[in-house]
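Example 3.2
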Amino acid sequence: MKYIREHRKLSIITLIVLVGVLMLGLAYAKYFLNIINNYILETKRFYFNSSVLTVNNKHYQINNWDGVSTYPITIDLNNRKNAERYTTSDIEYTIHVVCDTSKLNCSLSKTSSILREDDHTDSYQITVSPIVNFNAGETVSVHTYVESSSPYVKQLSATYDLNVINSRFTYDIEDKAGDLALNLNLTNSMAYYEVEEAFGNYSVGDEISNDVYLTLSDTNKAKCFSAKVTLTFDPSVVILDSTDNSIKNRLSSPYQTTTINGNSYVSKYAFKVDAATNKNVIFYKTNPYVNYTYPRNNNSPIIQVDVQLARTQ
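Structure, written as C-alpha cells:
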C-alpha cells in the first residue's frame, strides 16, 4: 500500500493497462467462443447463415446515402452449409433492429419468421427513414440481429454505418444468392429540371420546377431533363429485362449491344429519370447463386451507373 501511495501515477497507469488487456482478452474470448459454438451447432447439422450477417457482427460502410431519401437494407438468411448439406427442420427466429430513434425511423418488414426446411432461404428488409436534417459528412449507425429459437439458439448480426454524402442522385443494387434477378434502385433527389431545347418562353439552360414541369405537354416535357442515366453492363453476367420502360423510352445515344451465341443483347443504354423519383430496373442473372448486392456486399457494382444532372442551383 505504501508503494502504491508513493507511486500513485505509475500505479494508475498500470491499472489502466491491466484493465485494457483484460477487456481485450474478453473481446477475443467472445469472438472465439462464437466460432466454437457455431462449429458445435454445425456438427448437429444446424445451419443458420446469411451472406451479410455473421456470428461476430460484421460492419459495413455505406457511402452513397443522401441523408434525405429512405434507405432500404435487405438481409438474406439460409439454412445451408453448401449445395448438399441443409438443416433438416424448420428454423424459427426473431428479428431486431437498433438505431438512434431521435434521428431515424428504422422499420422492419417483419419481426419474426420461420426459415422453412424445404425453402432454404428467407429474407427481411429494414427501411431507414431520416426524421431530422442531415449534413454531408454525418454518420448514423443501424444495427440488426436475428436470433433463432428452434431447434437451437444462434445469433447473427451486422452494423451498417450510413455516411451522408452531398449528392442528389444515389443508387444501389438489391440482390441475394439464389434469386434469378436483381434490382437496380435509382433515386433522383433533384427537385427541378433543365431545359435542353427551347420552347415557349423558356430558353436552353433555364430551370423549371417540378410543379411547372408537371403542367407541360408531353412534347415540351421531352425537351427537359432532371437526370440522364447511362447504364453499362456485361450481358454475359446480367441481362436487362426487355419489358422495362427505361429501355422502351431510351435515349437515342449512347446505345450498344453485344452478340452472345448469335443473339444480340443490350450492353449500354441511357434514359431520363424524373425529378424526386425512385426508379427500379430489373436484371436477370446468368448465375443465380452470386450475390451482386451493392454497396453492402461488394465494393464495386456489377452495373456501371453514370449520371448527368440538371445544372446545380
